[in-house]
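Whiteboard transcription, Tuesday session. T.W. wrote the structure tokens on the left side:
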């Protein structure tokens, strides 16, 4: 399968994908202006580098502001986004300085990591990024030169990628892939039944956690339960989740207890995977086995991350199989980019309906206990799919960024 996939990936790299140069150049002008303005705000507070924790801590100390305690692995104080959104002003909203630091980092990243790199690697209005087929230990691919595998789910960057002349982009991604794979891999009865019936498993968890009828559960309570489920599937515990989301530990414990009660197989599988890693260890690593019998090596001191490795590894298998099958169905020349759980195809207008139908049929699969289904979007730019999302609005409208980030981190917006 890896050899078959390598052939298609070579074709994808050769064909490349089209960029919107005028949009990129216009965005760079706006971002550079914004960066200068933000640098002035930081300088007024004695900050030369927005990435030096010591400078940031000193600035907030001078303002008499409390900084949430969040340590790095080496024991130093973190000053990442999760910390900065918790530094509040007198109005209970994110403090303007913390907001300026986040904005400065965001603007700098868009300039340096994305837009500048797009132009640097472009051949006219085409990019031919390198797809590293086995970059991650889990087997997931990474797209480099330029880096496209970690592009944020907002239209700001993704609008730089457009369909060819007279074409449309077909974006097909797997729906709830991680949870469908988790349900299948753990044989979790309630998850399997929820997917089969279309029931809202997150609302049910919230009802149990907050002792309510499902009809009385708020969207915010459901959101917390949903994010806790993903945290659990990726090996996160209650304390880590509470810290990340800015919740009281007691509330986080209630949500995790509800998850364990409704989906006990998740805990059982986590215990089994940790035992497997520790039982197979050599030189500080143990291994787990994926559905195609390949071994994924996991650091023994991070055996709790086994579920995350397994979920990502299975997702990688699914995507690579889909690429091979799309090519076998005669659609390989249309593929422009595979990212995580999504394939992007660039298709002539007249062929769009048939290609969308066939690609959906090819990618959906019954190989797991829970059927893997897809969502299909037909657009003129990659960013259209994400336009209007909460995170996207935050990045395009600086004045509402604090509320959107707070909401994205699980806090009630002011």
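and on the right, the sequence the group agreed on:
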């Amino acid at each position: 399968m890896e050899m078959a996939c390598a052939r298609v990936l070579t074709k994808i790299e050769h064909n490349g994908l089209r960029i919107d140069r005028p949009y990129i150049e216009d965005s760079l002008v706006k971002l550079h202006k914004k960066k200068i303005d933000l640098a002035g705000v930081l300088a007024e507070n004695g900050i030369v580098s927005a990435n030096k924790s010591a400078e940031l801590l000193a600035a907030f100390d001078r303002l008499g502001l409390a900084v949430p305690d969040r340590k790095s692995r080496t024991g130093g104080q973190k000053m990442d986004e999760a910390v900065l959104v918790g530094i509040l002003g007198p109005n209970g909203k994110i403090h303007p300085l913390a907001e300026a630091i986040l904005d400065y980092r965001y603007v700098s990243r868009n300039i340096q990591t994305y837009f500048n790199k797009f132009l640097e690697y472009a051949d006219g209005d085409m990019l031919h990024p390198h797809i590293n087929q086995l970059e991650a230990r889990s087997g997931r691919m990474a797209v480099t030169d330029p880096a496209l595998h970690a592009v944020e789910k907002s239209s700001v960057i993704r609008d730089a990628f457009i369909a060819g002349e007279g074409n449309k982009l077909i974006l097909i991604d797997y729906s709830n892939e991680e949870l469908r794979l988790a349900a299948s891999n753990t044989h979790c009865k309630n998850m399997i039944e929820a997917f089969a019936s279309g029931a809202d498993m997150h609302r049910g968890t919230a009802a149990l956690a907050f002792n309510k009828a499902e009809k009385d559960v708020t969207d915010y309570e459901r959101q917390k339960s949903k994010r806790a489920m993903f945290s659990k599937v990726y090996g996160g515990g209650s304390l880590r989740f509470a810290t990340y989301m800015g919740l009281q530990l007691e509330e986080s414990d209630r949500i995790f207890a509800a998850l364990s009660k409704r989906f006990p197989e998740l805990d059982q599988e986590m215990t089994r995977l940790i035992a497997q890693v520790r039982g197979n260890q050599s030189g500080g690593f143990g291994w787990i086995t994926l559905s195609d019998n390949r071994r994924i090596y996991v650091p023994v001191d991070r055996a709790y991350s086994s579920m995350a490795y397994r979920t990502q590894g299975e997702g990688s298998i699914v995507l690579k199989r889909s690429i091979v099958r799309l090519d076998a169905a005669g659609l390989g020349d249309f593929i422009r980019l595979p990212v995580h759980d999504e394939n992007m195809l660039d298709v002539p207008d007249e062929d769009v309906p048939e290609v969308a139908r066939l690609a959906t049929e090819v990618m959906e699969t019954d190989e797991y206990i829970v059927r893997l289904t897809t969502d299909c979007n037909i657009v003129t730019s990659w960013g259209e799919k994400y336009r209007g999302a909460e995170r996207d609005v935050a990045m395009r409208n600086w004045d509402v960024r604090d509320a959107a980030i707070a909401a994205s981190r699980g806090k009630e917006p002011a």
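Someone added at the bottom: Residues 390-414 have pLDDT under 50 and may be disordered.
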